[in-house]
Amino acid sequence: MGTKLEVRNLCYSYHALEGETKALDEISFDVRDGEFFAIVGPSGCGKSTLLSLLCGLIEPEEGKILIDGKARGESGVAIGYMLQRDHLFEWRSILSNVSLGLEIQNRLDHRAREELLEMLSAYGLEQFQDAKPGQLSGGMRQRAALIRTLALKPDILLLDEPFSALDYQTRLEVCDDISTIIRTRKKTAILITHDLSEAISVADRILVLSSRPARVKAVMEVSFGKEFDRPLARRNAPEFSAYFNELWRELKTNG
Questions:
Q1: CA separation for the pair 139, 148 (Å, rounded)
Q2: What span, in angstroms and rounded, lies between the C-alpha atoms of 166 and 85?
Q3: Residue 105: CA atoms inside 13 Å, Cβ hemisphere, count?
Q4: Angle at CA 8, nearest 5°, toward 5 and 13?
Q5: Taking phi first (over 0 means left), then psi (-120 to 50 degrees means alpha), and beta for anything else, what does residue 62 get?
Q6: How far apart are CA 227 and CA 237, in angstroms?
Q7: Residue 145 near residue 178 (C-beta atoms within 8 A)
Q8: What is the pTM of this model?
Q9: CA distance linking residue 109 with residue 116, whole number of Å
Q10: What is the DSSP letter of 214?
């Protein structure tokens, strides 16, 4: 498994009249091709800022971001971004919503439409393609948001706490569902979450950040047997609690 993303000595600060607030300090890590990579850290440490840098919404003050060995802006690699809220438009049907990105990019041809219909069918939304978002449950709406993102065929998926707005039971089910879809499609995914159990249940590795300014404290490998290949199954694995305790210790230690 080769390296898809390289982050080297990344620094970023916010500037205001009151002064400078350093958000990220010398952040370095790699993400492998096809890997599910999770990032955890204290609230307000700069996790979302890091995702904004990775997708090019903001530029680093220092350091570099390489994708497939090239500078992010020169790599030509498509990056998909899935947010906490689904941001579906209530006046558009589900099919029209999942088509939106392709429509904006003028790529909504017959073949693309057929692929969308296939995904709607595969992910249990076929009978709701003409429904409005308000007629769907929170979990179904997030599935629609994922289809909208996957329709653009991104090489890397950035997931900014995409399950946090759901109730606990739905969150577990949708996390299991969406994470399995991403793995089946062999996408490189980077998940930000404040839920340690969620990170352990989905990730191949977990990056632990310190409080602001964020620095890398640890990168933890996560490995389960084949019988624990889905997030819900991992939560019942014997080693799950050991991973949780290790991750908790890393977050709580100084330095």
A1: 14
A2: 9
A3: 15
A4: 115
A5: beta
A6: 9
A7: no
A8: 0.91
A9: 11
A10: B
